[in-house]
Amino acid sequence: MSEQQTPSTGGGRRRAAEQSTRRRVDATLVAAVVLPLLVVLAGAAVRVGAPPPRATAPDAEPRREAVAVCPSTGVAPGADDPDEAVPGEGTVRVATTPEAAGEVTAYVGTEQLVAAEGTAAPVADGAVADTTTGDVTVLEATGEPAGGLVAARFDDEGGAGTTCAAPTTGAWFVGLGAGADRSSVVELTNPDSSTAVATLTLHDESGQVDAEGIRSVVLEAGTTRRLDLGQLTPSSDELALHVDVTRGRLGVGTLTTTEPLDGGEGTGYWAASAAAPTTGTTLLGLGGEDDAARTLVVANPDETTAQVRVELLGDAGLFTPTDLDELTVEPGAVATLDLTGVVQAARADGAQGAAGVRVTASVPVVAGLRSGSGADESAAVVAEPAPRDVADGTLSALLPPAGASRLVLTNAGGEAAPEVVVRDADGAELARVEAPLATEASTTIALADGAARVDVLGSADDDLRGAVLTGPGGTSVLALTAATPSDLVPTVRRAWP
Amino acid sequence: MSEPVEIPEPADHWADLRDDELPAAAPVVLDGSGVTVLLVSHDGATWLPTVLDALAQQSVEPARVVAVDTGSTDGTGELLDTALGHENVHELPAATPFGAAVTHGLGHLAPGTEWVWILHDDAAPAPDALQRLLECAAAEQAAGARVDAVGPKLREWPSLRRLLEVGVTISGTARRETGLERGEYDQGQYDASRRVLAVNSAGMLVRPGLLEDLGGFSEDLPVLGTDLDLGWRAAAAGRRIVVAPEAVVFHAEAGHRGLRPTSLVGAHPHQTERRAQVLVVLANASTRLFVPAYLRLVVGAVLRAIGFLLTRRPGTALDEVAAVLSVCLRPGELRRARAARRGTRTVPDAEIRPLLAPWWLPFRHGLDAAGDLLGSLTSHASDVADRRRDARAAAERDRVAATRAGTRAAHPGTEDDDELAAESGWLARYLTSPVALTLTAVVLLLLVGAREAFGAVSGGALAPAPDSTGAWWSLHLASWHPIGTGSEVPAPPYVAPLAVLAWLLPGGPVTTVSVLLVASLPLSLWGAWRLLGVATRLVDPAGASPWLLGVGAVTYALLPVTSGAWADGRFGVVLGAALLPWLVHAALGFADPERERRWRAGWRTGLLLTLLVALVPAAWWLVVGVVGAIAVFAFVLVGRTRLLRRDVRTGVLAPVGVALATPAVLLAPWLLPTLLQGDLVALVGEAGRLPYGVVAPTDLLWGHLGADAAPAWLGLVLVVAAVLALLVPTTRIAVVGCWAVAFAVAAPASLLAIPVFSLAPGDTPSAVGFAVVVLQGVAVVAAVLGVLGLRHLLGVPSTESGVRRLLAALPVVALAAVAGTGLAWFVGPGAGIVEDDRDAVIPAYMAQRSVESPSYGVLVVDGTIRDGVTFTVRREDGLRLGEEEIAALEPRDAEMVATVRQLVSYPSATELDRLREEGISYIVLPAPGDPAIRATLDSIAGLAPASAPDPQTRAWELVDQPGQDAVPGPSTGVLRWLLLAVQLGAAGVVLVMAGPSRPGGDRPDPADPVAAALTQERR
């Protein structure tokens, strides 16, 4: 720096100085060009990217235990204290995959399920074990049988039934009622040894219903509570219910009882549940005759209006009925759409058929479909996809002890050719058929009288959904249970501070 | 030795010592026949002729002069032979202690000797000295008090006027006390004979009986301290020693001053003297006072050593400690010495006590020394300030003279106005300076912009400061911390300086962080102003206009803010940027022609670099890059042979090496464990939360470190200006230098960008953010230099056309626009610091309870089963400033990971037991938690739900709580203590070496006795 040339005004001196320092000046010029280039090169290499995230996929480990909660056969609405009412008789059927053997312990009763001594029933070879009880039953399988635990509750007539589901942390129900002709009772069961708390939210056609006493429903360990919607909210025909379990987990069942105002025969059936609102819902199991009344019920918990489009699941694939408008559902409200005509038309057209409905909404919604009326009323099930990482592609259902049933199967993924295996109560194979299904196609397979369980053996990559319609005219619709031989165990690491 | 030694000319040595003001000796009335002079010599040829001459001129003639020479090699023996006759000169080996030499001499006394007069070869008595001593003894005798030894008044030789001793005593800190002021002139103020503890053996008139009774001078002591020892023993035996101030002996104190290196004194006269004095106190102290004296000496030695270190005398400090250690480590010697003295002790302590120095005397000396030091430091500082002001004024005069040469005629009287301004006070000058007023406004605006940093501040990379300074100290001291599941990761290096600062500042850590952040911007401005001033003066001795400097400095000071480092709480970058100009300024001292100043630059740069590295460890690599580039340049320019010449090695390379190595030593308690544990990311990191940020090449261009940065064009303008500055020929070399520095910074930065470090919580890159700020800073310097060159090129100050003026002003305006916009942005939208998201999910009651003990930890589980679960263990008051790096670098705890994994999938009582062992009281699942995990935790029997403020956040409490001592507190291992000791010692050394030069000049060169004699003040 000390040799820095200083500004000079003398022209001659300057020239002389320039000549004597020509070499140095040249070097400076060269450096003035080269150095910025070097800096640019070095700077371009200063590229600190975000490190790729650590692999966070969970591990699939063999399932160690499984719990299913079977609701009681239900109590009629209108009882003074639904909790005190004694349910009618019924049967709980339980089985596991034919490959597994072991025991399933059943805890029966509405009080102190945990403290009660369970009844251990051996399950093996795909045989079905029956427990005769109309009460709430918690089934617990540990070890081998846990992966394929499947159970169902049937009433004493053996027709109406529902699949027993694992306790959940949240569930949605639509198509419930609190009216004179249709009224529902919610049954909450806490199968665990610690207190559970749930927040219930009701929606009707005008929006969220302000109901007392359901904001924080506390269930002590191993207890059951029943809530009569008719006692919670003023008369309403179309109710949607959200059970948000804020603490613990609960088995939730809703029994809807119909009492036609004209004095005709009524019935009771379990409403289909959805885990969470979605934009695409597949509803399977349109019970009753072809011309039975069909009502699509859609609840929109979102804060914006939902535009709902309906397609029918035909034998060959999805199709949109020609004369069907979009359904508009206001935020927080429940809306209905009459599908009687379009289903009847589709079924009348032998080439089309209508095994179910596909609902596509602009925002996440919960949809359900009610078929028939009076004694024939039933609700389609929400056929949710099986979790691919833990399920092995097998779907199972237990059938009622008596009466013929039908299996409705659809394929939401690519082409699939599942095998349908029908077994009797001892696990003996009655039939094994292949059911090739094109994309979005559906099929209905009649299951012979005497069949106790049906297994759909797909591959884990298939997106098969199905339902079983029981009873002579389709009294109730049972969801298929996906066998889940694995449990997800998360990868764990310390968080950044 | 056999070669005849040339005897010096018989010069009139006495002429030097003749002192007309001395009172004339009284007529001889005393008889010297009872006196034998005992002259002990060793290599004293320098002084001996004078001494012998003085002896010959005594007004009382002694009976005999006996000389004992201990192995002189400089002709002393020959001088003595000539003067006294061979039979009176006794040769003894060089290692003979003083006591042994005297004992030997006692065997050759004249018959009937009553008094022995001991003289040293460097002690010349005044002509009447012996007479006065004898008179005094006689007078005392006549008064009825038997005297066993009489000592003269010692005056300094060669100054002759200054008093050395009028009797001596010793203090509790084993310090030889004369009771005199330093350099006190003899004006007869002490001319009354009195009883003293001891008199110097030089000129001591002593009864041979006393020496025989007490066993002579101690032979455990080489030379120094023997007189005090003898005096104390005599006093303890009930003997009297008197000082006779009328008798004067001139003493050169050759042994004490190290002018005469002997095997007895060794290479460290100070150490030998201290050792002797310590031994005297400990050997003679009564049994009752021995332990307090011992403790006082040990503690005192440490305190004195620290004092010496603070005054940049590490050698003396070492001597001090070594002296006390050498006594303490030889208990046998001490025991023997005490046993020997017990035999002659006959007098109670109380009789000796008045002869010893009062207890408070050492404290007064300490106060005096501190006062002196403070005084000289202040005067030094004002000297420096004066010098700088003079230099500036001179430069300003030159500039004014140069620029006004043509206009002076047109504006007569301007110069007078200037002088008037220069003479008026600083306030007037300040108020009349638009630059100063503008900069004041800028600083005020900076403070307004920094408003969020007032008070408790945290957010982004900046964790909240702990409540007490003790937390920082304990973090720094401990080698094991109860953080997370327990960590041996060392505390980050900035914790120690922060702790020191927090200890000094009222208000503790919270205030410290706030003050540091708020002050960093004005500090950065000031540093940049100084640095730009020097840089521009190097290019042009007249320097740049203050406006240009101001604009450049403000632009630089805003870099940490406009880059987004401020908003992201990256305090390492913010404070590092404030330190950087000071560091570079200090490093410019390496170019100083004076070797001493280069060394000081080395220490200062090392100290500042240590602070910078403590805040941004990655910066060390950038500095190495710059040093490497300069080394290559120097290698090419001057060649290897010149570069490796001894004077260059020790005068240039060594200070630079010291500067680069200082951080390694000063930060050893952090560096060594980090290396041992292989936490390499810490060496390329920066202060604050990990993982480090992403940097793209365009960020370098904009000068951006994150999303919260100022508009991109601000940084771009600087880069463009730095490129355009290359076009200005007058300052091209300097600007090219800036670009070279930029390359030297960008190159290591590009290397730092390569590695990715895998830590337990995830992967992180190195911290390259600081390089972005440095590159922008270099661009500022280049731009300022370019503008300076352009102004010269266009010749602005002359009365040129408006277009040229406009052309010259344009770049300044562009720079000012950058600075102004940056400032406006900072005061307005850019003032925010990102909100602190730490501990947001922890319910207050949990936080309150966990403060009670580290065993009441909170396990925070986040994430989902499908996307992975993360956990943290929060203890005490959460992660505070300095703890986040420890938590991030903590190695993977496989056991805890397995426990949490089990807990969220298949929990059992085992997991809860394990949590209890780890000292965890609560589990928190922040919103939105995975419902499956939530349900799983809800189902565990040993967990009770706990409340949380946010309904979506779930919390549990372990029903059986962990014991209060489940997690031990912080602990410190032996290695840590060692490293801390190294750090403390090194910090002391570096601070002293980096401090201003010791008042009173440098240490004397022992090879130059004259210089040594002139500068070394007798304390």
Automatic annotation (TrEMBL), chain A:
Region (Disordered): 1-23
UniProt keyword Transmembrane helix present: yes
Keywords, comma-separated and alphabetical: Membrane, Transmembrane, Transmembrane helix
Biological source species: Nocardioides imazamoxiresistens
Annotated transmembrane regions: 25-46
Protein name (database record): DUF5719 family protein
Top-rank lineage group of the source organism: Bacteria
InterPro entries in the cross-refs: DUF5719 (IPR043777)
Automatic annotation (TrEMBL), chain B:
UniProt keyword terms in alphabetical order: Glycosyltransferase, Membrane, Transferase, Transmembrane, Transmembrane helix
EC number annotated for this UniProt entry: 2.4.-.-
Chain intervals for the UniProt region annotation (Disordered): 394-417, 996-1019
Keyword Membrane tagged: yes
Gene3D superfamilies from the UniProt entry: Spore Coat Polysaccharide Biosynthesis Protein SpsA, Chain A
TM helices/strands, residue ranges: 426-448, 510-529, 541-559, 571-591, 611-638, 650-672, 710-728, 735-757, 769-794, 806-827
Protein name from the UniProt record: Glycosyltransferase family 2 protein
Organism name: Nocardioides imazamoxiresistens
